[in-house]
């Protein structure tokens, strides 16, 4: 059984309760955009910084891991769309090829999961901008591929039930160690 990357699951589990609380409890600042067309329907979502007192939580992050690996995760404000790319570098640039990429989309809240992992063709993610300076960076680019239906977070995607996706992203992000 194939499972979702733990960072994707962690981000969804973080974002869902955070973003479902009353708006007056949080200050939400839009920092970037993700636009996409999934199965013929276009949508636009934002990456954000959510602030509650001293707690600041961006939804766009580059996580630095052991052995010089990094993982870029761009999660939308509603927690329903995430682009992940893993690099063999702590300072990837637009020419740095990701060693893995994935897109997860939950268009109906927690009812259906559409994932690129397990699709019959690989997801293409291209970066026109990818800069890291200190504890901040910026990512811009495009993606295209297939998303396949998975019953839930722990289920494998059904390679016979896939839909096309393509889109673009442009957002600052924050570096986390």
Describe the overall structure.
The chain is mainly beta and 177 residues long. It is built from 1 helix and 11 strands. A 7-stranded mixed barrel has the order 4-5-6-7-8-10-11.
Short description:
The protein is mainly beta. The protein is built from one helix and eleven strands.
The best one-word shape is globular
Strand share of the residues?
A: over 45%
Number of strands: 11
Output mean pLDDT: 86
Q: What is the radius of gyration computed over CA atoms, rounded to a whole number of angstroms?
A: 15 Å
Percent in helix: under 10%
Main β sheet profile: 7 strands, mixed, barrel
DSSP helix count? 1
The string of secondary-structure elements, in order, is HEEEEEEEEEEE
- Low-confidence runs of at least 5 consecutive residues: 1-21
Return the structural class.
mainly beta
Distance between the termini: 30 Å
Q: List the strand order in the largest sheet.
A: 4-5-6-7-8-10-11
